[in-house]
Amino acid sequence: MSSSDWVNVIGWFVSFILGTISATFVQKYFQQRKIIAWAVVGELDIITPEAFSGFNVPIKIFIDNQEETSISVVKIRIGNKGNTEITNLSIQFNFGNNVNVYGGEFAGKLGVYRNSLRLTKSANSATIDIDYINKNQFFDVDFYIGKYIIGEVSVDMAKAGVELRKTQFTQWDLITRNILEELILTTPLVNVIYVGLQKTIKMP
Q: Which in 39, 90, 92, 129 has the greatest CB count within 10 A?
């Protein structure tokens, strides 16, 4: 083969490689990607058994007429990490077999978007129904849980074409306050009423 033939072959080969790379790049970055990401922002024990161990009289804690030994706040962030809007989602949060879930509250200023979110609870889990969530949008939820063990949270979701991805709070492309400030300053903890030697707590 002459030198000009070699130049043509090499040129064709380079063009083929560059075309393949370009096609892969376009497919990866311009196709619709639907990703729901979640992260634990923080876990805070607000009432522990040790908190009342120094008293000479027994102190009992009742929530919704149920005796509790500890109360924790778990803040979870849910967001759309894809590149398009996602609609009609149902996400389940499980906190362990022996816990009591007393409710949850959407944190921050959500405005009218709050009407697109609904939270229901069962004995040891909670479910959030989402009408829609735009790309790069996120929100936080504070869950109030009795007998919670740090780290015992899992999330489940079944939606065709949507990936559920656990991530780290530090990996969100957002500037936010530190974890303790997020938990303490944005959590309307409890309305506490002392009745004799019993402590009655009304959850929001």
A: 39
